[in-house]
Amino acid sequence: MSAFHNPVAVHFGAGVFDAAAAMVPDLCYVIASPGALARGLVDRFRARARNVEGVYAAAAPNPTLRAVRDAAAQIGAIRSQTLVAIGGGSALDTAKAIAAAQASPAPFWLTDHLRDGRPLPSPFQPPRLIMIPTTAGTGSEMTMWATLWDDEARTKFSLAHEALYAAAAFVDPELTLSVPPGVTIATALDALSHAMEAVWNRRANPVSDALAAQAIALIPGALRDALANPATLAAREALSRASALAGLAFSNTRTALAHSISYPLTAHCGLPHGLACSLTLPEILEWNAAHDPARIAPIVRALGCASVTAAVDCLARLHEDLRLSDLVQPYVTVSRVEALGACFIAPGRAENNIRPVDNERAKALLVASLRRLWLSPNDHLKPEGR
User: Fold this and answer.
1) Model confidence, pTM
2) CB of 211 closer than 8 Å to CB of 53
3) In whole angstroms, what is the distance from residue 65 CA to residue 69 CA?
4) Which has fewest Cβ within 10 Å: 11, 131, 326, 350?
């Protein structure tokens, strides 16, 4: 059992966004999503900051090696010792990658590091990071890694180093009030997956369990409330709190089987990450519980259930209430899953699962999840995903 460690200073609550600028050193560089720019958040930050050297506001969803390389080239060398990231998880991950690129004067080296294992520069001293999430789900502001996609090989990499932990995270639920329903669902389910994966994890410890359980207890009800009343701050605050708690939990454990299964669904089928990593949660919960029911008990209790069967049904009902089948069907068919082959075991993820798993078992759990969503033993209702 590992010890818990997380160095991020967390500032949480409505209005902390406006306090962030005053806590940033004299010179900073802003990395933002186009949405954060369009909503006026970048201008709002700049109006309160002492000195902003520059802004890059084109951080795209699911950042790729190519996109980050182009961003690093566009930004060039900066004088700032602090990067401020404003946006969803993709913007935060882009900022981490750009910070890493700034740590070496050599031409863009991240591709060789991630693809071929080229060592990080020594010493590795990227700029200080300040993270301001505008969605409630990815938890990237709490972790030391950034998810980057290789659009040529259609695979996913994690850039990881202790120096990529944020110095501070400002989690302001007010920034999530305008998040549309589809993104609200995907990000909240991403947080639920982070929390559950932190529990059925070989790296779990009592602190990560406690944080994860609080997140699991919050998400189903808060998500339903946020969808029914999108402008209700209480629901958004609960989702932001759950995302932060789940982020802290899995910052120590990493993710496990559900994420391992999800990566080819995003890379090859285009299924949004939060949906891809959460659609198998009921099936993996049941399968892991058969192996180690005591390890699964924190999840069962957090869902307010008396048994594993009841907890599985609770998650399945949540998927039904969210009409998850309608969200998944445009992307994934059983036949397409079968055609993907041996790609569901991601190094650094599947082996974290408390129960050993191979590709065929992972694929079987995914197919079972799809059949449950579609309530039919047949591959029906939809054309092949894109």
Assistant:
1) 0.94
2) no
3) 6
4) 326
List all residues 6 or more positions away from 104 whose beta carbon is below 8 Å from its beta carbon: 121
CA–CA dist 210, 302 (Å, integer): 10
Classify domain 182-374 by CATH architecture.
Answer: Up-down Bundle (1.20)
What single string gives the DSSP state of each residue in 96-158?
Answer: HHHHHHHT-SSS--HHHHHHH-PPPPSS--PPEEEEEESSSS--GGG-SEEEEEETTTTEEEE
In the numeric block, the tokens 């409505």 are attached to: 14
Residue whose structure tokens are 């004067």: 105
Domain 9-175 has CATH 3.40.50.1970: yes
Q: Give the residue range(s) of CATH 3.40.50.1970 domains in the chain.
A: 9-175
Structure confidence by residue, pLDDT tens digits, 34-88 = 999 999 999 999 999 989 999 999 999 999 999 999 999 999 999 999 999 999 9
Tokens of 139: 């938890």
Residues of the chain with CATH 1.20.1090.10: 182-374
